[in-house]
Specification:
Elements lengths: L3 H5 L8 E2 L6 E2 L5 E5 L2 E4 L3 E4 L4 E5 L1 H10 L14
Antiparallel strand pairs: 1-2, 3-6, 4-5
The structure holds zinc ion (2 copies).
The site of one zinc ion has 8 residues, from helix 1.
Length: 83
Amino acid sequence: MRCFDCAALGHPADAVAVCAGCGAGVCHDHAHVAPRWLTRTAVINRIVAVEPPARVIRCGLCQQAADAAAGQQPSTAQRRRRP
Ligand SMILES: [Zn+2]
Ligand SMILES: [Zn+2]
C-alpha cells in the first residue's frame, strides 16, 4: 500500500500504517500517533484509565478533525495529555 497524502503530492511512498479514521495508507511522515486511553470500572462505578494507553494512528486530516472535535488547537498528537 502507498501513502495517500504522498500520492496526492505526486511522490508515492510506501505506507507504514492505516489511518483509523478514513482508512487511508499513511507513511511515517504523515502518520500521527496518539494515545487512546482505555477505561475500566472500579469499585463504586468509578471509571479509571488503565496503563499503558493503547495507540491510535491517524492521517493529518483526521488528526486535525479529532483535535477540533476535542476543542484543541491543531497540534502534534504527542502533546495530548491524559484526560
Ligand atoms: Zn506520506
Ligand atoms: Zn484519515
